[in-house]
Design brief:
Helix content: 40-55%
Number of strands: 13
Strand order of the largest sheet: 1-2-4-3
Distance between the termini: 36 Å
Oligomer: single chain
Bound molecules: arginine
Radius of gyration: 29 Å
Shape: globular
């Protein structure tokens, strides 16, 4: 189904042509002066240059022709040559009725669906999740849902960090604490225990302590390095420990992601790319893609047009060790082999931008990907505290994600208990859903690349541009619909949405009608904030309409039925959008 702007544009373009002008000038946009009109066309201004005449000489006759068009209620040419458009009530209602009939509210899905991998987890095992991982997860989950909604085959990969030097540090740290563990006994021949020798909380204490200790103890650092090397070369005891770490971490990670409404299709790990490394390195050498620089193996990625410094991509260090780069390149090899994707999207902190640029160039140059495989990096900004600096705990440490979620949930819980009359059990459940929505919406309503300020009070407010406000609007519509049934009413089978009868209703319909345009832009720009902005506007329009209209007391049955259908449509649209940003409304709040 065409978007409402396209339909208006069709009329406008035809009028340009009928009057002897190129139809390309008939572009229509939403009005930037909503006090004057709903839509506008500014094409007469550039057209006047081409046709060497005054813009009013173009806009005038076009407007005269369109005045009798039933799609328009009002259309005017305003000096120096703007065309202001207000559409007719019937046309608007027709469009909304069509939206209601169509699957996906009339959205046109991707004609050539693509296979897309999104790499948006990146948690590191044995280390607690922090706020950076949260942004990646929240943004990635939403982008995954948007791409999927548009008809693509989308594979979300957690891409666990499980292979770096941190593993050596954790194992060395564990050895310091529990030197007698059988995993450290080189002469041990039997079966290792099935149970891990640590809990997740114990595990999470080991890494920071070991990391701190290694800074002032070079022998310990050496030992950790040696352990990493042995682990990566198949040391039995270390491998068994590593498997325990993996298991304990992953089951904990899954819990946190679940709380955030985030789920991955794949739980691949950096280590899964290891088997591809040797062949890949050989291939780089055989094809002269790589050269030796001070003992290290590197791929040059500098291009003539570069204005910034572009260091080469290091594949092997001078001691033969692999790096983060090596793993990412080998992961590309693996992904191409297993899924042959048309596009791979990476979502991390924007500080990794140069890194990914280097990886993408190296992958293209060495033809690890096809010429038309798209490699995208989406970098997000920092979540700051109220002081404008990266968000920290009160003690100045890194806030654990679980604690952050809990804080927001508690805040929501307090608000519910203070302002609502709800049974304690239900209040708890509601706070869990609303708390996550507050956190996620507070994040996603910002442009991805921008830094933002984490403000618990604002995020959890039931008013303003917040998650709770959106959910509250959903709950409110549900309760009006329930009321309609409660008073024994049923929609007549021939009921439709009637042309609007008040300015609030016009406004609400205009907001509803924007759905497809919003979704297309959210899709093209991979921008969840577009959806947030839209549902905020839609929720506002709904609430103004609701305050001005006595829906349940209305005596004209057809009118009442029309409103009920319309707010039902608003509910569906809001819930679809809520799904797309990964939040969910409770039954009551
Ligand atoms: N584990 C990494 C980190 O915590 C993020 C991984 C992002 N994805 C990737 N393919 N490099 O910074």
């Amino acid at each position: 189904m065409k978007t409402i702007i396209n339909l208006i544009e069709d009329e406008m373009k035809k009028a340009f042509e009928d009057n002897g002008f190129d139809k390309k000038y008939g572009t229509v946009t939403i009005s930037n002066r909503p006090d004057l009109c709903q839509y506008q066309c500014n094409g007469a201004l550039p057209a006047a240059k081409e046709y060497k005449t005054a813009p009013m000489n173009i806009a005038g006759p076009i407007v005269d022709q369109l005045k009798s068009n039933p799609k328009f209620k009002e259309i005017n040419a305003i000096a120096p040559g703007f065309i202001n458009i207000t559409i007719s009530d019937e046309f608007l209602a027709d469009y909304i009725n069509d939206m209601k009939q169509e699957e996906g509210f009339g959205i046109e899905k991707e004609q050539n669906p693509k296979t897309i991998i999104i790499d948006y987890g990146g948690p590191n095992i044995a280390k607690p999740l922090h706020v950076g991982h949260m942004r990646s997860a929240i943004i990635g989950e939403s982008i995954k849902r948007i791409l999927r909604f548009m008809g693509n085959k989308v594979i979300g990969d957690a891409h666990l960090g499980d292979w770096g030097t941190q593993m050596g540090l954790v194992i060395a740290g564990l050895r310091m604490k529990q030197p007698d563990l059988v995993y450290f006994d080189e002469s041990f021949e039997g079966e290792y225990p099935k149970e891990a020798p640590f809990t997740i909380s114990e595990l999470e204490e080991i890494y920071p302590a070991a990391s701190e200790y290694s800074k002032s103890n070079p022998e310990f650092r050496e030992e950790a390095k040696q352990i990493t090397y042995l682990l990566q070369n198949g040391h039995k005891g270390y491998l068994a420990l590593w498997n325990h770490i993996l298991e304990v971490s992953v089951s904990d990670l899954k819990k946190v992601y679940e709380r955030l409404n985030v789920s991955f299709d794949l739980w691949k790990k950096e280590s899964d790319a290891q088997p591809y490394i040797n062949d890949m390195v050989q291939y780089f050498k055989d094809n002269n893609y790589a050269r030796i620089s001070e003992g290290a193996l590197v791929i040059d990625v500098k291009e003539e047009t570069d204005t910034k410094e572009m260091p080469p991509c290091m594949v092997l260090k001078s001691d033969g060790a692999t790096l983060y780069n090596t793993t990412d390149l080998a992961t590309i090899v693996e992904r191409m082999k297993l899924f042959d994707p048309d596009r791979i999207i990476y979502i991390t902190d924007k500080r990794q931008e140069l890194y990914f640029e280097t990886i993408f160039r190296a992958a293209r140059k060495t033809k690890l990907v096809n010429d038309n495989t798209i490699l995208n990096f989406i970098g997000f900004g920092t979540m700051n505290g109220k002081d404008g600096k990266p968000f920290k705990t009160r003690e100045g440490g890194v806030m654990r994600l679980e604690h952050l979620i809990q804080n927001v949930t508690d805040e929501v819980h307090t608000k519910i208990v203070e302002n609502r009359n709800m049974d304690p059990e239900e209040a708890k459940e509601v706070a869990v859903k609303v708390g996550v929505a507050a956190l996620k919406y507070g994040d996603l309503s910002n442009q991805v690349s921008k830094d933002y300020i984490f403000d618990v009070d604002r995020f959890t407010s039931f008013e303003g541009n917040t998650g709770p406000y959106i959910l509250y609007t959903i709950v409110r519509i549900k309760s009006i619909l329930a009321k309609y049934e409660e008073i024994g009413k049923k929609l007549p089978s021939d009921a439709v949405i009637l042309p609007p009868s008040s300015s609030h209703e016009v406004n609400l319909m205009l907001e509803i009608s924007k759905f497809s345009d919003v979704l297309y832009s959210a899709y093209e720009e991979t921008a969840p904030n577009r959806i947030c902005q839209y549902i905020y506007d839609l929720a506002n329009a709904l609430n103004s309409f609701y305050h001005e209209t006595k829906i349940i007391a209305e005596e004209d049955e057809r009118k009442q039925a029309s409103w009920i259908i319309m707010i039902g449509l608003v509910l569906d649209v809001l819930q679809t959008c809520a799904y797309l940003i990964g939040i969910e409304a409770p039954e009551r709040m």
